């Protein structure tokens, strides 16, 4: 057995031994392992005092990092004084642990008496400023004259130490006031460099300190306190008054980087969501920290690794947590390339934080795939049969002209909602577009489709520019036959009589966008007597699945791109086809949803209308 490299002093008999554990068991008869462990840790100096209160006068710090607090908040204290305070804290922590262990009535029982009798003594002894004990006036009460002399000498030295500490605290207060006076002089010089500045008597600051600090506060010119709500112009950051203005200004600079030159509403909303996730992460990282300006709270790898677990415990799913981490990785890349001026984080520490976030993203890869498969399976269980899709299209095609006739006579809101529901369920059963394509369609886009149509074309192409995936696929394209486009033309004529203030094709009674178009679509679906309560996502999933099972890979790819749906989300490109090309893809859509019993028979629907050179309004 290799002997220890250092000798330890026994806390009970104050003798030095190589194997302190054997000495405690053999010489002192200690059998309780927890008791021996506490005493050995005290002898080694391995006592955790991080949660102890600050031992210095006037400081109310009580948190989980006392060691770092002493280093950063009390640089004026001498090294010997800090070592003495830490030793006293370790002794006090050891006494508390021994006392707590004794209260549990352990088995085997405790034999040491280090903490017994110290409770009354610790009440009269402070860590930094000890008070003098009362000595009996009658020296004859003590049986030992030398002990009485030592006690009297100890009391005298203790009183002298107390006086010295009072003088030291006074000098500290004087130094703080002197620094404040110097700062005020420097600010006055910067504001009025040519004018005279009234001198400040630093000696008078010491006299003021003897009378108290109230007069100093009154004589000092009052400065307006910064309002946390006005430190930044961005409303998202006003929810975090805890952070200093330098950090909020840096986050606002990052916001300028995110929003770039585009001013689209959806883009700005997405970037604000990213900013909120970054601020939540910074709030989590700064819990229990008092010094935030230097960003030294950031290189805490243990805390970074706890962030995904916290999000999962709050109820967020794996895909959402992965999005949070990706946004955080992007922010850390910005922090690495353009660090703030007040940051003291080394570049190597920033790289370590980025690696930790990348590792968290990698660990989530398997749970994300499993969740995607589960969601896909759940969506497939809600797939709409092809027979119902075909029947929905047939019934809606017959019902829409009747609704338009009713609107021509009386365009009341209830009939308008019925028309919106039937037209949306008709388009959803055919193309599977998201609800945003229909809600964001404008009159200008319909007129543009009419203007771009050429004589001889079999239909019209409506390009809806505002939708969810316009950055990946460009405008969402709707190819409508002459009959289907005539429904929109008739509706626009009725719409002109209503004369709404909005340019949207579908609008509410308040001339705003129809946010709950799904309710009107489901009402139309139930009105046709079809089973279930499908959503737009159910239509989208069903059509994409049938296209995969029935069509060839080339036709399937065209169908998915036309409906702005592609499983390879990393591929960014826009698809913009002409009317003849979309007419061919329309045939593929019809083939994908056609029931099996109609496959062999020829049931192609001949166009009822033909496009001529004259147009509406000409």
Key descriptive features of the protein:
about 625 residues; mainly alpha; two-stranded antiparallel sheet; about 5% strand
Protein described:
There is one protein chain. This protein is mainly α and 618 residues long. 57% of the residues lie in helices and 3% in strands. The strands form two sheets. A two-stranded antiparallel ribbon has the order 1-2. Strands 3-4 form a two-stranded antiparallel sheet. A hairpin with a 6-residue loop joins strand 1 (8-9) and strand 2 (16-17). Helix 12 (318-337) runs antiparallel to helix 13 and helix 15 (386-409) packs parallel to helix 20 (482-498). It is elongated and about 125 Å long. Mean pLDDT is 79; it is low at 119-142, 193-197, 201-232 and 569-576.
List the topology elements:
Elements: E1 8-9, E2 16-17, H1 20-26, H2 33-44, H3 66-73, H4 79-103, H5 118-123, H6 145-191, H7 202-211, H8 214-219, H9 245-259, H10 265-285, H11 301-313, H12 318-337, H13 347-363, H14 365-381, H15 386-409, H16 413-431, H17 435-439, H18 443-452, E3 459-464, H19 470-473, E4 476-481, H20 482-498, H21 517-527, H22 536-550, H23 553-562, H24 579-593
Helix pairs in contact: 2-4, 6-7, 9-10, 10-12, 11-13, 12-13, 15-16, 15-20, 16-21, 16-22, 22-23, 22-24
